[in-house]
Structure formats: structure tokens, C-alpha cells
Amino acid sequence: MGDRVLVGGLRVEVKGLGEAVNHGHSGVGGAGFTPPARCTTPHVSVEQVTAAFLDAVDHLLVSRDQVDELVDKAVRAELDTTDLYIKADQVFALVGAAAEAIDQLISRNARVAQDQSEYQRRFDKPTSEHAALLDEYHQLLAQISDLENRQAAYRYYKEQLAILDPASIEFTPYLWRTLVDHAEVGTDDTITFTFRDGAKQTQHIGK
Predict the structure, then answer these.
(1) What distance in Å separates the CA atoms of residue 17 and residue 186, rounded to the nearest whole number?
(2) Closest Cα to residue 23, out of 177, 182, 11, 47?
(3) Under 8 Å CB-to-CB from 204, ≥6 apart: which residues?
(4) pLDDT mean over 166-178
(5) What is this structure's pTM?
(6) 82: which of 39, 52, 115, 126 lies 20 to 30 Å off by Cα?
(7) In whole angstroms, what is the distance from residue 61 CA to residue 163 CA?
(8) Angstrom distance (rounded) from CA 90 to CA 58
(9) Which is more confident, 17 or 99?
């Protein structure tokens, strides 16, 4: 995978970057972009990318009179959140148990005179465990949220793909975001589109 650049607001990835190339967030060929010496990065215009995109979509539609059931099942399995929800519930229960242990220690310390250095040692362990478990729980929630967003994008992708007419497709950034997961520009004057179901289509960039 190469560096990500913007072409007219569209995210593409460039493979085979030359030495010391640093595009930052500049649009390719846009204001503020200064190619460094010995840059071998492919340079593409919005027109080239959009033309290649429309050709790729046309190929996709022609080859997909009906949705490949195996591909659909594979994508849905990849985006499934069932196991993550189970894991999140288990971790949340452990978070609660750790919090209860901390509360019991605090309550006992308030009622019974104890060696405070020993109390602190016993207090630090569940506190550390609670913090680690809580962090793990939040990470699981973030993973679930990401997968659910991708599920929604995939469902919408399928809906829009089903109603697209190859004879009347026009480019819009909205259509790009709906259909494309990402695109890669190669050093061989090609651009490869990866659609939201994992399908790939490589197009030569018109000059």
C-alpha cells in the first residue's frame, strides 16, 4: 500500500513512490503541491480518475447480473460483530467485578484500621485491572462501531448497485463514496479500484 493522496477530493493510494516524496494532504497537481526531485509518483488528474472509475463501474455491472452469493456471505462474515459483542459483554462483567472489589476495599478501609501500605498494595492491583479492562472494553466498542458502519456502507452499496443503469451512469463524489472502498494508482499507468464487496477492477489511465 502506498501513500494516500487526494485527487479532487477523492482518496486514492499511490504505489511505488519515489525517494523523499511527501505529498501531505495536497491534491495531486493542486495548489501548494511541489514535486520533489527524482519523484516517480504517478500524476493523475480528476478527469483521468473519474473516467477510469466509470469504466470500472461499467465492467463491474456487466460482470454482475446477479450478486455472487458466496462473495456476499464472505463479506457479511468478515463484518459480523457477534463474537465482539459476546467478548464485550464478558469484559464489561469483569469491569463491574473489578469496580466492586475496589468499592469493598475502600469500604473496609473506612471501617477497619489497617496498615495503609498493605492497603495501598491491595488497592493498586484491582485499580490497575479495572483500568486495563475498561480500556479493552472501549476498544471492543470501537471495533464494533467500525464494523457496523462498514455493514451499513455495504448494505447501501448493494442497494445502489442493484439500481444503477450502465447506460446512464454519471460520476459524482457521492457515487464514489458509495461504491469504492479504496483505489490505488500504480506506476504502470493503471488505477485499481477495490469496491465495497472486495471486487477489484484495474483500468489503464487515459492520457
Answers:
(1) 9
(2) 11
(3) 52, 189, 190
(4) 83
(5) 0.61
(6) 126
(7) 10
(8) 46
(9) 99
Length of the chain counted residue by residue: 207
Nine-digit cell at 199?
Answer: 471486487
Q: How many degrees, rounded to 5, is the angle at CA 81 between CA 99 and CA 93? A: 15
3-state percent breakdown (helix, strand, coil) of the chain, nearest 5: 55, 15, 30
H/E segment holding residue 159 = helix 116-163
Phi, psi of 3 (to 5 degrees): -70, 150
Q: How far apart are CA 122 and CA 139, in angstroms?
A: 27
pLDDT tens-digit map of 20-38:
333 333 333 334 434 444 4
Q: Are 53 and 193 in contact (CB under 8 A)?
A: yes
**Taking the CB of residue 28, how many other CB atoms lie within 10 A of it?**
23
CB 195 within 8 A of CB 181: yes
